[in-house]
Amino acid sequence: MPSERVFRPVDYVKISIFGAALSVLWPSLHTIIIPLRLLEFTPEAQKNTYLGLLLFTGSMIAVFIQPLAGALSDRFSSRLGRRRPFILVGTLLALLFLPSMGLSGSFLFLLAGYCLLQISCNIAQGPFQAFIPDLVPQGRRGVASGAKSLSEVLASVAFLRLVAYFMDIYSSNGGDIWLWAAIGFPGLVLLAAMIATMLTVKEQPLPPGEQPTAAKTMAGAYKIDARGHPGFVWFLVSRLFILMAMVVLQTFALYFIRDVIHHPNPAGVTADLLITVGVFLLLAVYPAGQLSDRFGRKPIILLSGFVGIVGILVLFFARTYTGMLVCGGLLGISSGAFLSTNWALATDLVPAGEGARYLGLTNIATAGAGALARLIGPVIDFFNAQQSGLGYSVMLLVCVLYFVLGSAAVIPVRKKVRESG
User: Fold this and answer.
1) Within-domain flag for 31
2) Which of 106, 173, 191, 220 has an alpha carbon 20 to 30 Å from 283's alpha carbon atom?
3) What count of other Cβ atoms lies within 10 Å of the Cβ of residue 416?
4) What is the DSSP letter of 32?
5) Higher pLDDT, 227 or 52
6) Which residues have C-beta within 8 Å of that of residue 120, sequence separation ≥ 6?
7) Where does residue 208 fall: left (phi above 0), alpha (psi -120 to 50 degrees), or beta otherwise?
8) Mean of the per-residue pLDDT values for the chain?
């Protein structure tokens, strides 16, 4: 799919399908499977702490692995291209370690399996993210980023409720078959997406002689030219804070629904919330990418931050099932506008020839947000111990602060002069 020719709609699908599979796997694990599994062998009063620390550890691994894998793929040459060999190896390793999510009978076993799964998936994800700057003409990257986000949300919305259904039955009635159905289904989706990507995406291998040594590549994997690319640094700060707000809400949603709304089927209601977010995200994500190509990235990102703040304030004052769904709709619009536009901004800012490495470095913000956001788990438990539900009030106010800081940080970003597409 060389960038010199017209990029067809089917090409957007080809370069997005693996990301869609990851969007089935990680929300299923982070929002439904792992929180419910932790309730089986962690103290009730410390469940937010254990969940936050487990996901923090995995996210820090992702911060390290993804830029390294991306940098290695930037200089890798094979008959399969630069990115697809990493996608193949990472996926096979992920399928090897995924069963540990069901076999674990202790926190340490679950933690070890989760960390190995993070390593595997990020070996694949870092190189995968470079498909847009590698293959898409510059003037179409906003649309491509919108299509990428659209496919990821569609996949998550389509299948998350099924995983929640399996886990609700497992939690209330027992039966390991339901647990394995919940874990195995995202694994099958990931395998199918890897095969489709290997068969349909066509890359051009690097010519011989252009690759530095692996040691030199690894040594420079985490270097950011802050003086030459100051906009990329501000971009990372903005992405970090806004994603922190979104990750906090996603991570602790099930426990919030269980402890504050007191619903008897928290997994199902959590899925309802995320599906509501997903539906409204779908309405916003592709148009936002198109609008950012036309009017610029920053105005759309600033608008997304404002809508996110309104959504959280709705939930703060209306802690009911209805209030939760209204909040979900607003957060969906905010997330859709942010995700496609922010990723398009990233592809604008990366230096030529270092697409996978710099897009892997966005994981400093992406996985870093996941790591830092989850450290609020002990804070929630601390304030809940002082007064029932107080910890969740603190959580929501902190999310408002994150949205404010993330929106402000995008203002100094200056985009590179656009190259001809």
Assistant:
1) yes
2) 191
3) 14
4) I
5) 52
6) 90, 91, 93, 94, 96, 97
7) beta
8) 85
The HSE-up count of residue 85 (CA atoms within 13 Å, CB side) is 15
Q: Which residue has the tokens 């068969």?
A: 199
Question: Of 92, 243, 102, whose CA–CA distance to 176 is shortest?
Answer: 102
pLDDT score at 255: 92
Task: Name the percent of the chain in helix, strand, coil, to the closest 5.
Answer: 80, 0, 20
* Separation between Cα atoms, residue 373 and residue 51, nearest integer Å: 11
Residue with tokens 């609008």: 291
* Region of residue 337 (phi > 0: left; psi between -120 and 50: alpha; otherwise: beta): alpha
Percent of the chain's residues with pLDDT above 90 = 43
Please check whether residue 375 lies inside any domain of the structure: yes
Domain with 302 in it: 10-204+226-409
Query: What count of other Cβ atoms lies within 10 Å of the Cβ of residue 9?
Result: 8
Residue 67 clears pLDDT 60, i.e. is over it: yes
Using the predicted structure, report yes or no on whether residue 296 has a pLDDT greater than 70.
yes
User: Is the separation of the CB atoms in 242 and 305 below 8 Å?
Assistant: yes
pLDDT of residue 353: 60
Per residue, the 3-state secondary structure of 302-332, as one string, reads: HHHHHHHHHHHHHHHHCCCHHHHHHHHHHHH
Q: Round to whole Å and give the CA distance between 3 and 165.
A: 43
Alpha-carbon gap, residue 146 to 126, rounded angstroms: 19
| 398 inside domain | yes
Give the CATH number, domain containing residue 68. 1.20.1250.20
Q: How far is CA 257 from the centre of its chain?
A: 22
Written as one letter, the residue type at 209 is: G
- pLDDT level of residue 295 (50, 70, 90 thresholds): confident
- 3 pLDDT band (50/70/90 cuts)? very low
Residue 225 pLDDT: 64
**Burial profile 170-206: b = 16 or more Cβ within 10 angstroms, e = fewer:** bbeeeeeebbbbbbebbbebbeebbeebbeebebeee
Who's near 176: CB < 8 A, 6+ residues apart?
Answer: 102, 170
Identify how many contiguous H helices and E strands the chain contains and give both numbers: 19, 0
d(C-alpha 195, C-alpha 199), whole Å: 6
Read off the pTM. 0.72
Count: domains in the chain:
1
Nearest Cα neighbor of 124 from 148, 89, 81, 95 is 89
Distance CA 380, CA 256 (A): 10
- The arithmetic mean of pLDDT across residues 122-134, rounded, is 88
pLDDT tens readout for residues 179-203: 999 999 999 999 999 999 999 998 8
Q: How far apart are CA 363 and CA 67, in angstroms?
A: 7
